[in-house]
Structures are given as C-alpha cells and as structure tokens.
Amino acid sequence: MENKLVMYMHAGSGNHGCEAIVNSVCHMVKEDSVLVSYRGTEDEAYSLKGLCEIVQERSFEEHKIAHVLYYLYRKLTKDGESFIRYRYHKVFRGKAVPLAISIGGDNYCYENMLNDLKLANAAFNRKGTKTLLLGCSIEPELLKKQRIIEDLAEYHTIIARESITYEALKNAFEVEEGGKPEKTPRLLCYPDPAFTLEKKELPLPDGFAKGNTVGINVSPLIQGQEKHQGITMENYRNLIRFIIEQTGMQIALIPHVVWNNNDDRKPLGELYEEFRMTGRVVLIEDASCEELKGYISRCRMFVGARTHATIAAYSSGVPTLVVGYSVKARGIARDLFGTCENYVIPVQSLDKPDDLANGFKWLSEQEEKIRQQLEEKIPEYKKQALLTGKEVDRLWEEFNRQQEI
Questions:
Q1: Which residues of 103-119 are buried (b: 16+ CB within 10 A; e: fewer)?
Q2: pLDDT confidence of 340, banded at 50, 70, 90?
Q3: Which residues contact 64 (CB under 8 A, 6 or more apart)?
Q4: What's the pLDDT tens digit per position in 43-58?
Q5: What gap in Å lies between CA 42 and CA 19, rounded to an integer?
Q6: Does residue 180 contact residue 217 with C-beta atoms inside 8 Å?
Q7: How far from chain centre, in Å, is Cα 236?
Q8: What are phi and psi for residue 218, nearest 5 degrees?
Q9: Of 107, 116, 112, which Cα lies nearest the Cα of 82?
Q10: Bigger pLDDT: 400 or 12?
Q11: Is 11 in contact with 18 (CB distance < 8 Å)?
C-alpha cells in the first residue's frame, strides 16, 4: 500500500461527478493509485474498476461492537482521528504513503463533512503523509471561519478549480492581523480535472436527434435551495413547454447523480411522465460518467444543475445554461466567459415561472457565439487542467525522495 498514491473523501460513483474526478486523475498521473471509497461497490460497477485499487471504507453501522469500543476509546483518549484510522484501515497500516489526495469538489461547503475532512487531514499528517486538496470550490464566506482555515493550513498544497475560490484562499492566508495560521499551504488554480474526461458514445435512443437535442438535468439538491417551494420544477416545466412549442428540437433528460437520497431520476422522471406523450422527450438511463458525457456531447445545447454534467457539456463545446446554487457554478462560468451573468441562473433567484425559459432564450440567441467561444477556450482549458496531474506527479516524486533519505 505504501507505494501507491492514496485518494480519499470519495463518496462513490453513483455521483458521476465524483466518479469523473477520480477517473480523470487516474488517467493523468503516473503512479499506481488506491481509492478509499464510501461506496466501493458503486465504483466497481462504473468506470473506476481497473483504473485504481478500490478499498471499501469500514462502516461502524455494520460493526456495532467496534463502534462502541472506538467510542469509548475516543472518549478516554480524546483521539478523534481513531475513527478515520478505523474507516480507512488498510492505508494506515505499515509505512506512511508519501502523498494522499483529498478529492475536493465542494466537500468543504457541507457542514456535515467538515469534521471528517479535518480529522482525515490531521490523521494523514500525523502518520507522516503529505496531503493535497484537489479540484476544490469553497464559498468565500466559509473562509472567515477560523476552524476551516486551521484545517486548510494543514494541507501541503491546495488546487482550486476556479478563480473565485482561489482568490478567496489567497486573501484568507494573507491576513496579517488576528487568526492567521502559522502554516500556509501552497495555492494553485487549475480547471477541474473532469474537463479532460474521455467520452464513450453508446447508441442513441429513439427520439434523441444528434445535434438537435437539448440536454436537461435537474437535481433534488437545487430543489432544496429554492426560495419559493416548487418554483424549480415549475421553471423546468415551462422550459420544456417552450422548447416543444417554439423550437423543433428534441429534449433529453439526463441524470448525473443516482443515490437513493439524492436521485436526479426522481424529478427527471416526473418531467418525463408529464411530457412523454409529446414524442419530443427522451429519458436517459443511468450510465458511467464517460457514457453520460457521450450523450451530453451530442446535444445541441444543455441546461443543467449538476456541476459535472455542465462540465461535460462545456468541455464538449456545447452551449450551456447552469442552474447553480454555489461558488463553483459562478467561478467556472467566469473563468470560461469572463462573467457568470446570463450563463448561470442561481436557483435561489428563481422567482417567476418563466425565468429559466427566458434564460434559455438568451442562450439560443447567443448559441453560435458561445459555441465559438468554447471552441477557442476549451483546448487551452484542458491543457491547464492536465497540470493537476503534473503537479501530483511532481509532489509524489519529491515526497517519495524525502522518505527515502
């Protein structure tokens, strides 16, 4: 295990954005990799099988006695990291690995993940393993919290995936008065690794017109962020009506997360049942991140809520409207187009039933201009994304040499 690059804080490939990040990193780096996964069976079922060694986290839910023993041990010793060592078991046996990568995404935007992120970071550092936070987006407001800054300071390197997060991190670690940590991580900004994800083109289902279909993605997650109950689905319904009544394009409803408690197929299924009799709507089944990108790449335009569904569209040159809720959507759009205005509609701003349809009208009017912008921008953007792999390789070699000395 000590000769393998470790990736951790991976929730499972049923979130095809998580899958896309790991898939892309595995293709970028030279090192043999091991992925510590919360849902290892999902990873075996999709594209990660064979790309890296998959280690299933141990769960206290399945080992009640162990949970009680570890709880008592932590109570007596105040050793909170013991839970992480138990969960990650194999990677904490024997000699420390040179480098462990926290597969970042927007993990730091979720309150229920902050404690585990901090404990895992601390546990690896205590073992003698350097840590790298990769491909992250963090709300600038969160960086005003001392406990988050103290945790982030323990990473050797942090790679932000968009400039809003990068600028906020630089400002947070350049504070001169009060609360500045003794340690400062190395800060870099490279595009999300998934911009380099390869696509796989499965046969198109009946009703999916290549180059004349609007891909649509909606998620329960953004529904939970809406200010007016039901406004998100009302907007999506009106968007579909507009496309059917005012254009000759087909519609493909494309899921990107299929977890039981957060399944895109539920709202997409509702939309499909409502409009299926028109003959203009197709519901795409669950597939790997590479296969879903294959569908998205053959769309004419895309309207999406899941970040990595929109990254699949952007990176394929497909004009895209993002229904966002956080810094990641704004930051990625700003880096690509110089502004997020019109390219991102915050779900919190949905107020009228036709807001999304009006946003799509703007996208349609700018379609060729946006397509040209993406054709010009994406090749260089992908080259920049590949720098993440070069940085991982460089750090691995550096830390490996240090361990040998």
A1: bbbbbbbeeeebebbbb
A2: very high
A3: none
A4: 999 999 999 999 999 8
A5: 9
A6: no
A7: 23
A8: -135, 150
A9: 116
A10: 12
A11: yes
Model pLDDT for residues 172-213, shown as the tens digit of each residue: 998 544 455 567 899 999 999 999 999 999 999 999 999 999
Burial of 206 (0-12, 13-18, 19+ CB in 10 A): exposed
Rounded Cα–Cα distance for residues 13 and 369 (Å): 34
pLDDT in tens, 269-312: 999 999 999 999 999 999 999 999 999 999 999 999 999 999 99
Contacts of 122 (CB under 8 A, 6+ apart): 81, 151, 154
Dist CA 374 CA 314 (whole Å) = 7
Backbone angles phi, psi at 212, to 5 degrees: -140, 35
Q: Which of these, 119, 155, 166, 114, lies nearest to 328 by C-alpha position?
A: 166
Average pLDDT value for residue range 12-36: 97
Q: How far is CA 201 from CA 44, 205, 292, 299, 395, in A?
A: 20, 12, 8, 12, 35
Contact 14, 257 (CB under 8 A): yes
Report pLDDT digits (tens) over 1-18: 668 999 999 999 999 999
CA 357, 360, 364, 366 torsion: positive or negative? positive
Q: Hunting for tokens 């390789």 — which residue is that?
A: 393
Q: What are phi and psi of 317, to 5 degrees?
A: 80, 20
The one-letter amino acid at 315: S
Does this model's pTM top 0.85? yes
Amino acid code (one letter) for 369: K
Contact of 55 with 91, CB cutoff 8 Å? yes
pLDDT digits (tens, 9 = 90+) for 57-98: 987 566 556 555 655 655 666 677 888 988 898 899 888 999
Q: What are the residues facing 73 on neighbouring strands?
A: none
Q: Look up residue 201 and give its two tokens.
A: 């083109």
Question: CA-to-CA distance for 359 and 342, rounded, in angstroms?
Answer: 7
Task: Indicate if the alpha-carbon torsion angle 297, 24, 116, 70 is positive or negative.
Answer: positive
